[in-house]
Amino acid sequence: MARPGMERWRDRLALVTGASVGIGAAVARALVQQGLKVVGCARTVGNIEELAAECKSAGYPGTLIPYRCDLSNEEDILSMFSAIRSQHGGVDICINNAGLGRPDSLLSGSTSGWKEMLNVNVLALSICTREAYQSMKERKVDDGHIININSMSGHRVVPQSVTHFYSATKYAVTALTEGLRQELREAQTHIRATPLSRPSLLAQCISPGFVETQFAFRLHDKEPEKAAATYEQIKCLQPEDVTEAVIYVLSTPPHVQIGDIQMRPTEQVT
Ligand SMILES: NC(=O)c1ccc[n+]([C@@H]2O[C@H](COP(=O)([O-])OP(=O)(O)OC[C@H]3O[C@@H](n4cnc5c(N)ncnc54)[C@H](OP(=O)(O)O)[C@@H]3O)[C@@H](O)[C@H]2O)c1
């Protein structure tokens, strides 16, 4: 059954990036459960196909459409938006979730690790945002949402060298979300004959602390015991906790704009 406030999204299209595992997979599942058409993208498309079959056999009212996309490649992203346009019309909600950390410190890290983080965490998020906005604009969608999955690392720098560059990319997400909020306000005030007192396309972000996913295993891919310890030291957030925040953001009435939801495990110190 649709949650109160979610009825308006039934049969509308949400793009969820990084839907193959972790937070993105949980968000995609929850949106299909709420009756949305969800395009879930990632490189490991087989996982999304399995999730789509699972959603179908559970009888959820929406559908999950798997799409293989390497977000570090702009052409892949543009082809995906073009396929969404020709097959489904366009995007009403864009959830920029895909992201990663590499253990490359500022003093001795590899440039390739920094580039990978920049490409996915910052550039892909910005390209998807631009394309989603253009899609909403051309179809005159006046209630679209762009939700960035940020991080507590986008708000404070913890004294752990392996997270410093990652943290810089997430500070960028904080700035990009606020910049987008301002540009949307400006653009919509100018597009309409009657200036709006409030923008109707919204930019928002959710900033979790530790969430138990593949994230730490990918960050510490050469030291899996370190990754396991990350999730064993405290009771972490689960992907479903972040999903609840996404559903909350989407179910608020149009006069409400959430800026950022910061959420940590209760036991997290930093
Ligand atoms: N876990 C945490 O503690 C935590 C805390 C705060 C914020 N976050 C943020 O939450 C978001 C999701 O992370 P998660 O914890 O769910 O991590 P995860 O389990 O490692 O999942 C990351 C997702 O991003 C996708 N991805 C990575 N590189 C990609 C690329 N080049 N092209 C397409 N997709 C790509 C992965 O898909 P493929 O590998 O299949 O392509 C995967 O679906 C990230 O933005 C992360 O920064 C996580």
Q: How does this model look, in words?
A:
Helix 1 (22-33) packs parallel to helix 2 and helix 3 (74-88) packs parallel to helix 4 (111-138). The protein is α/β, with parallel strands linked by helices. It is globular. Helix content is 46%, strand content 14%. It has a single domain (7-263), classed as NAD(P)-binding Rossmann-like Domain (Rossmann fold, 3-Layer(aba) Sandwich). Helix 1 (22-33) links the parallel strand 1 (13-17) and strand 2. NADP nicotinamide-adenine-dinucleotide phosphate binds at residues 18, 20-24, 42-44, 69-72, 97-100, 120, 149, 151, 208, 210-211, 213-215, 218. InterPro entries: NAD(P)-bd_dom_sf (IPR036291), Sc_DH/Rdtase_CS (IPR020904), SDR_fam (IPR002347). It comes from Sapajus apella.
Could you list some keywords that capture this structure?
oxidoreductase, 270 residues, NAD(P)-bd_dom_sf, Rossmann fold, 46% helix, binds NADP nicotinamide-adenine-dinucleotide phosphate, estradiol 17-beta-dehydrogenase [NAD(P)+] activity, 3-beta-hydroxysteroid 3-dehydrogenase (NADP+) activity, EC 1.1.1.62
Low-confidence stretches: none
- What is the ordering of alpha helices and beta strands? EHEHEHEHEHEHHHE
Q: Main sheet: which strands, in order across? A: 3-2-1-4-5-6-7
CATH topology annotation: Rossmann fold
Radius of gyration: 18 Å
**How many β-strand stretches?**
7
| Structural domain count | 1
Query: What does the main sheet amount to?
Result: 7 strands, parallel
Helical run tally: 8
User: What percentage of amino acids are in beta strands?
Assistant: 5-15%
Give the mean pLDDT.
Answer: 95
Percent helix among the residues?
40-55%
| Ends apart, CA distance between termini | 37 Å
CATH level-1 class:
Alpha Beta
Bound molecules: NADP nicotinamide-adenine-dinucleotide phosphate
**How would you classify the helix and strand content by structural class?**
alpha/beta
Family: Belongs to the short-chain dehydrogenases/reductases (SDR) family.
Protein name: Dehydrogenase/reductase SDR family member 11
Pfam families: adh_short
GO molecular function: 3-beta-hydroxysteroid 3-dehydrogenase (NADP+) activity; estradiol 17-beta-dehydrogenase [NAD(P)+] activity
